[in-house]
Structure formats: C-alpha cells, structure tokens
Design goal:
Helix content: 40-55%
Number of domains: 1
Order of helices and strands: HHEHEHEHEHHEEHEHEHEHEH
Strand content: 5-15%
Number of helices: 12
Bound molecules: S-adenosylmethionine, 6-(5-methyl-2-OXO-imidazolidin-4-yl)-hexanoic acid, iron/sulfur cluster
CATH architecture: Alpha-Beta Barrel
CATH topology: TIM Barrel
Mean pLDDT: 95
CATH class: Alpha Beta
Length: about 325
Amino acid sequence: MSDIRHNWTEEEIRAIFERPLLQLVLDAADVHRSNHIFGEVQISSLLSIKTGGCTEDCAYCPQAARYNTDVKVQALMKVDEVVSAAQKAKAEGSSRFCMGAAWREVRNNRDFDRVIDMVKEVNKLDMEVCCTLGMLTPDQAERLAEAGLYAYNHNIDTSEEHYNEVITTRTYGDRLNTLSNVRKAGITVCSGGIIGLGEKNEDRIGMLLTLANLPQHPESVPINVLVPVDGTPLGDNSRVPFDELVRMIATARIVMPASAVRLSAGRLELSVAEQGMCFLAGANSIFAGDKLLTTPNPEQNADMEMFRILGLKPKAAFADGRPNAKVKAMQYEPS
Ligand code: SAM
Ligand code: DTB
Ligand code: SF4
C-alpha cells in the first residue's frame, strides 16, 4: 500500500505530471497495483432525474437555462420510474447508481422529500447509491446519509484560478464547503473535474493539488473530458488529445493512491486501445449506459466487448465496506 499524503506541493505534482508519458504510465500502474486489484473496474450508471432549466452559468453545461441547447426541460422523475432504471442498471452489471439533478442547490421542499424516497428505494436494491444535486447544507447531507446515501458527487471542475472563467454564479469556496458537509455526514465523497475547458497545464495540476490536499481524499475522482455541446459557450472547444487525458489520470492515480479514478465523460470518442491505456494508467471506474446525463455514452454491448478484450472485471458493490455504518459505529464507540 502507498502512503496517503495530504501535504503535496505544486512542484511535486508538476514533476509527476511532466514525466515522459510512458514512464508516468508505468509509475501509475505500479501505484495502482499495490493499492487495488488490477483489472477490477467499478461500473456506475447515471440517471438525470431532473433535467435542464438550471439557473447556473457553468460554461460547459447543456442544462443551463441561459444557453440555447437541444436539452428538453424535464421535471423531477417519479420514484417508481427511477427504481425501474436502477433495476435495469443493476441487471446490466452496474454496482453504483448515480442520480443527477440540474439544480444549483438542494431546497427543503417536496422535491427533496422525493429524492430521499428515491435514495431509500434504490438502497434496497443493494447498489451503492449516489446523488449529484448541487450545493448541500449540513442538515441536508445528514438527511441523505440517514436515507442510506453512499456517495455524493460534487466536482471542483478545475483550478481555483481558472474557475471564474467557467462559472460565476457560485464560488470555489461554495464547492469545497459542500464537500466538507458531505464528509461530516459520513457520506463518501466523489469529486473531480473536467479537462478541455480552455485551462492550462498549471490549472490541471492546481485541480489535482486541491483534491489531493483535502483532509481526506475523495473516494472517487471523476476525470471528465469536456463533451462540447452546441449552444454552450464552450461548444466550439476542440477535443482534448488523448495523451493529455492519460497524463491527468496517471497523475491523479499517483497522488491519490487509494481513490477510484473514474474515466468519465468523453469515452465515446476513445478507442478500446486508448481506454486500455487509461486503465493501465490507473483508471478503475467508468460510467456505463448509453447516456451520461444528457449526452451519449458507449452502448452496453461495446463496453462488454471492451471488458472482454482487455480482461477487465466489474467490481462488486460495497467491496470497500459500508462507510455510513462504519462512521456511525465509530461515533458511538466509547473512547
Ligand atoms: N447540478 C449539479 C452540480 O452542478 O453539481 C449536478 C449535475 S452537474 C451536470 C455534474 C457535473 O457534470 C459537473 O460538475 C461537470 O463536472 C460535469 N459536466 C457537465 N457538463 C459536462 C460536459 N459537457 N462535459 C463534461 N462534463 C460535464
Ligand atoms: C461527473 O463527474 N460526470 C458526470 C457525473 N459526474 C454527474 C456527468 C457528466 C455529464 C456530461 C454531460 C451530459 O451528459 O450532460
Ligand atoms: Fe446547473 Fe450543474 Fe449544469 Fe452547472 S453543471 S448549469 S449547476 S446542472
């Protein structure tokens, strides 16, 4: 097992990031092998439970109301529809089910009550339940934890320096605050970002520095490649070259050795060989299913074929334990 460090310096991370690519991949593979079962990949499914019409101005996002995209606004789904989607995802091999809402933040209203019911029902399927609903207060995080939420996704997206070029309607500090509320409630943290937003290498290094120096590393670190969507301010951005994605994944693997690094949005444009190199470089999680939230993702058959070709195996649900139970038990243990 590698040392888990929270005192990385920018120079140290830059020195890793700038290694010759194949050397970097080999080093990341070593770290990966000593901390994880090599070839085991977590499969997570996404469902957009409330789509579009969002008040925020995230420049990459097709769901922001202010941009003219093809996304159709859809009100919060019904609980039974969500449960059916989760059952289908489980039957297709997913161990985690992530529900996303195009909200700035959670409000204490009937919609939140319904999300709580969704969490309870999906939890009964023995899947790891995840939500991404925007900003959360400590009380809301606590309610989600009590309902059985396993993970909460809230991305920092980029470096603090580049953040204001991409989003102006909420701050970097707001994001970190939500992550801290999630952590305190005993829910596992899923947080990463996007490459291809017009950031420099310094910003990619800065984002990894922020994540790697959190008091506890996020259990999952999604690395998304921007999916440029027509009508958004970043719709004309060019695609991130594949070697830059590999470099990002490998560096994340080395600085956060125990975390799951998720090869997230952008897989549709990658060949099996390119994805294979990402797995070699330490990626050990994917989003499966033919849709992410609103944009397409590889078909299930294509992913099954990729698993066969590369000799990958799906990771079972709760293989890392049930942290809600663990945290609660620790809290009540006599000292
Ligand atoms: N509204 C909530 C929020 O912003 O936290 C949850 C949903 S939001 C769509 C979740 C994440 O998806 C964003 O933080 C961003 O990292 C990612 N994302 C959104 N649009 C994307 C795109 N076009 N390409 C890649 N990633 C994207
Ligand atoms: C994450 O890091 N990526 C997912 C999930 N967390 C919520 C979302 C990707 C969205 C891609 C654009 C879309 O499909 O709308
Ligand atoms: Fe809204 Fe989330 Fe999209 Fe930002 S990323 S516009 S908060 S749905």
